[in-house]
Specification:
This protein has 1 helix and 4 strands, in the order ββββα. The chain is mostly beta strands and 60 residues long. It has one domain. Strands 1-2 form a two-stranded antiparallel sheet. Strand 1 and strand 2 form a beta hairpin.
């Protein structure tokens, strides 16, 4: 999202459809690797979108 780093997290369900919220995060930017360390912005155990974020971005 431009210069901002964000993730989408699941915040519940309404009428059988999952609901998501966009949260800003502070990440550790390293080159390579499969994972990205998040320093601030989400809690351990939160469900984070790993595919389809572009489509969610257009809907929020």
């Amino acid at each position: 999202m431009g210069e901002y780093k964000v993730v989408f997290v699941e915040v519940g369900e309404a009428e059988g459809t999952a609901r998501f919220e966009r949260l800003p995060v502070d990440i550790e930017e390293r080159e390579g690797g499969e994972y990205v360390a998040v320093r601030h912005g989400i809690d351990a155990g939160q469900s984070v979108v790993v595919g389809g974020a572009a489509a969610l971005s257009q809907r929020l």
